[in-house]
Amino acid sequence: MAEPRVSSIDGKLAEEFACPCHVEEVKEKMAAFAKSHASAGRRVVLITSGGTKVPLESRTVRFLDNFSSGRRGASSAEYFLDSGYAVIFLHRHRSLYPYTRMFSSVNMLDVLQFTGEDTSSGCQVVVNQQLLPNIAKVLKRYREVKDGQLLLPIEFSTLSEYLHLLKAAAQALSTIGSKAMFYLAAAVSDFYIPASEMPEHKIQSSNGPLQLSMKMVPKILSPLVKDWAPQAFVISFKLETDASILLDKARRALDTYRHQAVVANVLDSRRGHVVVVTCESQAELTLTEEDVKNNVEIEERIVSNLTSAHSQFVTQHLG
Ligand code: PAZ
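That is the input. Now the predicted structure with PAZ docked in place:
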């Protein structure tokens, strides 16, 4: 089926997806962040991370969700920061977050202890570094990033919030042209129920088995590449469970949207293997057993591949 026209996607966004009230304020924040870092000579990457929540009722009790933990987005943010980028981190509320992700399985109360006998409210509490061996190193890097104002976190929960905030981000970053990268790692729902067709109240199980009819979510990559940030370096992600269709779908996405690269991955092997597909090339990135033993993460390889490609892209656009 032909891709809907850009204007119809804009119209659909306005009509069928409720706009979060703070979107204009967030857009201004993102534009100011991009401008100040670009004028300091930094490139800026917008990372999307985590899954989206699709409500089934307007007074939402139930919703459709997906598997994404946000680990890819959060760890990639750290590698982009290490590569000198400023990062806008558009992430799902309560998904993994840069730096704290490393301690997400830790019960905070198990690693804290009192310094003395006194356990009243005025006493000192410290971290037991034997239980959190990396904490000092991670805290130091987190502070550097925070003090340098290099990370701008923006949260979403629902599909509507994600779509409006991504549009706002794209428009905000368009002012820095080819210095902007979009790294669209979030797992975004392909289906939704329009507000006009959504029941207001909790769906009643006494009415029997539930049948849902959902609409296709507009392909936002199309206006992002063509209209909102036409000079930016844009990377989308493609996840499949059937490896035999993955590369074909990645190439088809490149043909359709004409952006710079697709990072293709399969659900079960995504932590150790991805393919970066561009119009001219196909780079397989794979962790060896040795890499895994040394705690190397696949995101380090992905970010290294894409930051090099972005450098070439910027040179071509400025040259
Ligand atoms: O968030 P996570 O680390 O659990 O998973 C990452 C991922 C598989 C969501 C990402 O690599 C990806 O492929 N995102 C796009 C998914 C898609 O819509 O095809």
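The pocket of PAZ is lined by residues 68-72, 185, 187-188, 237-239, 265, 270 (CB under 6 Å).
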